[in-house]
Fold:
Amino acid sequence: MVRTDTFGKKRIDYIIRARGFDDYRWIVPREDIAVARWVRFRCMFGCGEYGRTGSCPPAAPTVEECREMIGEYENAVILHFSADLSSRDDKCALMSGLLDLERGIFLDGFYKTFLLQFADCVFCETCAAEGTREKCADKIRCRPSTDAMCVDVFQTARKAGYAIDVLKTRAEIPNRFAIILID
Structure:
């Protein structure tokens, strides 16, 4: 078993900062990540991407599978981004950076490392998955979002000490959060 004691966390802190991420906090998944059924319903009834990508429901695991998988981890970091990511290129760049971070932590010996993205997958110009993992054209880089994994981002971010509120206008810059599960 790979240790994520103080020494391990310091190594991971170095990897995170070396890749330019500085707004993050350590959390304990079983205690700090809120998994809730309402998040899946919000995906089903309120998201235009539902059923269109290989990382979103219904291609995502069930609520119980999400809760169980997240509960298997002892450590995680929640990363915060407050940036205008209105273009697909901006989202792709940030998602690529997060995947590079996931890989860096993995290569340092934390073999269970798994990224929950801040948004639905945008790597392909047009997603061919049609709501199934089988048809996904980029299975290597495609990761589920926190929403697809039924994470109540508001409650989880607040438990980690971040201030987050519902945006009232499209002119406001959203807070975005990704989570890297680590063991």
